[in-house]
Amino acid sequence: MKNKSVVIFALVSAIAIFVAATLAYNKVKSDKKEELAVTDPNAVPYVREHSMSLGKNEKNITVVEFLDPECESCAMFSSVVNKVLYDYGDEIKFVVRYLPNHRNSAYVVRILEAARVQGKYKETLQAVFDSQPQWANHNNPQLHLIWSALVNVDGLNLEQLKADMNNDTCETIMQLDIEDANTLGVRGTPTIFVNGKELETLSYPAFKMLLENEIYK
Prior knowledge:
Elements: H1 2-37, E1 52-54, E2 61-67, H2 72-88, E3 92-98, H3 105-117, H4 121-130, H5 132-135, H6 146-150, H7 158-164, H8 169-184, E4 191-194, E5 197-198, H9 204-215
Parallel strand pairs: 2-3
Antiparallel strand pairs: 1-3, 2-4, 4-5
Helix pairs in contact: 3-4, 3-7
């Protein structure tokens, strides 16, 4: 009976310690979010000088997406992003950051940054996402197939692209983006921030609501 009481006491103590640790962790996380909420959404860790951006930003609204070009969810969510850019492109600045979590992600980021040099970033990103089921098939990835998709990007010089992919700047960009993602607590992709506020639900209605709350506040 005594041994049984000791075991029960040990279990209760372990549970109490776990609960206390969880509460402490959540408080630290909450405090960190509050601290970041007052950070300038146009500065580190949301935006870097190197960050790719789209839109006219007439309403001073900064949208940041952490994406992975090999991420299936990012490819699926790209239609929502395109609609947001179509509907709110004049009002917002849309910033792209990288969180390369898959085997071939870093290679494709190099392609995107090289296409950016030619002013073909958006078109290349769309081609990458559209062809993702072919080159990034999880059961049988065939990275070479991405080049078949890039051939169809109008005006993209593939020889120049291959040369620009070797620029060391690409590696620096990825490392800084990963560092900022860690600071912001970003673990998965896509993750969206609107003026520093994280989009909790990945849908167009939720995205629109968060945007308009910032535009018309």
